[in-house]
Amino acid sequence: KEYNKITAQELTNYYSAEIFDFADTSELKPEDKMIGQDRAIQAIDFGLLCKNPEYNIFLAGAVGTGKTSYACRAAHKIAATELPAQDWCYVHNFKKASKPMALSFKPGEGEVFAKDIKHLFEQVSNKLKDMFKSDDYDKTKMALFKELQTKQEALWDEFSAFAEMHEVMVQWASKEARINMTPLYEGTVIIGDDLQKLPKEIREKVNEKIFIVQEAADEMVRRSQNLEELFVGNMKKVEEKFVMQFINEYFLALREKYKDNNVIDKYLDDITQAILKNLHYFKTEPPDTEDEQL
Questions:
Q1: Nearest C-alpha neighbor of 115 from the set 254, 234, 7, 226
Q2: What is the reported pTM?
Q3: pLDDT score for 229
Q4: 158 to 24, 143, 153, 219, 265: CA distances (angstroms)
Q5: Contact 67, 87 (CB under 8 A)
């Protein structure tokens, strides 16, 4: 069977540039539809207009058919007729860290709020570090510590006098963190086996005195620990008072700025409480880079 032969020129279509009304393709607008996909276009348009939040649009098909491009153009076209969407900021939930809090804002205010919070943390962090280095803070802390020392020394003096009255010599062994007790008999120190050499009646009296003094020592230690707990509590109150004086102005400024949003006001309360519970983070300096590398 014979076939008609054609030349390469006959297989090529030639178009004159004069038939086009544009200089290059950058002047052309993209096609606003998918060729041959009328049903898909109707489904996308219907899905975008559906207000049910549980309604979703699933796009499937070969790559390059224009499905994603059309869906984006259609979404932008409809969005232009709607009210601007709210801004949403997800913030840390101090009561349940695994469930962040969502804060809503008017369009454009979310980014401003994020910058405000970042600036707040920077200011508070720097301010607290300065506070813990301030002379006023050091003087107040030292005054409370000296008060503790004075009361503990008074307890020790009272205990020592009680022990001396019962002929027991006491000494605080700081290295072992305990009280060493040495009995006395007629003004003489009883060391080692010397106690066993004394008559039974005297040994019993000495042991009884040691027992009484030991009970007094336990009571003195308990009272001393109570004083230390009281010191820690007072120190915490002082720190909280200093902290609020140093950072309150920054929080007040934000509370005033977002006074119409009760959720933000509660969030700022949570930040304040978190700072008060974690003041130790602001008392330590970050390690020097060079030292850390060494």
A1: 254
A2: 0.59
A3: 94
A4: 101, 23, 9, 12, 52
A5: no
